[in-house]
Amino acid sequence: MARTEFQNKTALVTGAASGIGLATARLLLDRGAAVVLADLRTTAAGQRSADAGHVSVDADRAERAIPLTLDVTSESDWAAAAELVEKRFGRLDVLVNAAGITGLALAGSLPAGRGADAEPLPHGRDSDAEPLPHGRDSDAEPLAHGRDSDAEPLPHGRGSDAEPLPAGRGADAEPLPHGRGSEKPGGPAPQDPESITLDTWRAVLAVNVDGALLGTRAMLPLLRRSRAGAVVNMSSYAARLGLSSAAAYAASKAALCSLTRSTAMQCAEKRYPIRCNCVLPGAIRTPMWDAYLGTGPDRAENEKKVAAGVPLGRFGEPEEVAAVIAFLASDEASFVTGAEIMIDGGQSVRP
C-alpha cells in the first residue's frame, strides 16, 4: 500500500535537478506532497522529477511537481519563491536546503587531502555538469561570479544533495594517508588555510551557508502557517573532519550544523510549529562519481577502493538519504529537532 503521509502538504527542495535533492523530491511526490523543485536548471529539475519514479505516467503527480529557477544566494530569488508558494498553496510544510558546492577545482584527479575513508563530492551535481559559478545552485553556467578571473572552475558534482569529497585520489592512485595532499600534477587548486583565496572561501560559504540561511529566513513565515513545519538542511560528514585541502567546504558544512541548531532553538523558543534538523551524508552514489570512478574496465576496482573505506562496505544510494530526510520532515519525527543524522555507512564511528 502506497504511503501518503505527505498528502495535502507542500515542500520546497533546492538543488532538485540531480542527486540527493532529486531523490528527495521524487520521494515526497511519491508520498503525496506537492513539491517545488528549485534549481538553476529548471528544465532539468522539472523533467527529471516528472519522468523519473513513474511520475510521468501519473497525471496527479506530474501536476504536483512545480519547477522553479532559483539562485540560492539571491534574496530576490527567495522572495519570488516565497511569493509563488504563498499564492499557490498559502503555506509551506517542508523546506529541504540541499543545494551546495565544494569549490574545489579538479583537473583529472580526486581532491587532495583525502584518505581511504574520505567522502564523496558535495550534493547533487551530475558528473557531466558545467562548472558551478559563485553562489549558484546545482546547474549553473560556468561563469565564476565572485571568483578570480583566472580561477579554476568549480568541481563537477554539486548542487542538490552533495556529499563530502570522494575517497582520496585519482582512479588509478593508491589512497593517500588521511589528511595528506595529492602530489599529482594537475590536481585541485589549493584550498588549505594557507593557500585558499578569499573569493573561493566566500563562494563556498555563499552557497552552502548563506543559501540555507536565506531560504530559511524567506520561508519561515510560510512554515509558521503549517500545522507541523519542518526544515531539513544538507550538511556532510566533512563537518566532523578537519580537511586541510577543503577548508571552505568542511567549514561551511560545520556552520550549517550550527545554523540548524540555532534555527531549531529559535523556533522552539518562539513556539513556532517548526522543527529543524540536518543530515550528514557520506559516500553516496550520485552521477558525479562517474568522473572519478570512470566508465571503463577499472570502474569496479575503483568502486571497491572507495567502498573499502566504508564500514558497511559499499556506497550509499541517494534514495537512502532521501528516506531519512522524509522521516525528519514527517510527523513521525515530531519530537526530533536540532538533530544531526549521520548517513555514512559507519565512517564517522571508525577510529
Describe the structure.
With 351 residues, the protein is α/β, with parallel strands linked by helices. The protein has one domain (10-349): NAD(P)-binding Rossmann-like Domain (Rossmann fold, 3-Layer(aba) Sandwich), CATH 3.40.50.720. It has helices at residues 19-30, 42-51, 59-64, 75-89, 198-223, 247-269, 290-293, 299-307, 318-329, and strands at residues 10-14, 34-39, 65-69, 94-97, 123-124, 158-162, 229-234, 274-281, 340-343. The chain is globular. The N and C termini lie far apart (42 Å).
Largest sheet, described in full? Answer: 7 strands, parallel
The CATH topology is what?
Answer: Rossmann fold
Query: What oligomeric state do the depicted chains represent?
Result: single chain
CATH second-level architecture? 3-Layer(aba) Sandwich
The count of DSSP E runs of length 2 or more, i.e. the number of strands, is: 9
Determine and state the CATH class. Answer: Alpha Beta
Residue ranges: pLDDT <50 for 5 or more in a row?
A: 52-57, 106-187
The coarse overall form would be globular
Question: Can you tell me the CATH superfamily?
Answer: NAD(P)-binding Rossmann-like Domain
Mean pLDDT: 77
Percent range for β-strand residues:
5-15%
Strand order of the largest sheet: 3-2-1-4-7-8-9
Kindly name the structural category: alpha/beta
Gyration radius, rounded: 19 Å
Figure out the total of helices: 9
Order of helices and strands: EHEHHEHEEEHEHEHHHE
- What percent of the residues sit in helical stretches (DSSP H or I)? 25-40%
Domain count: 1
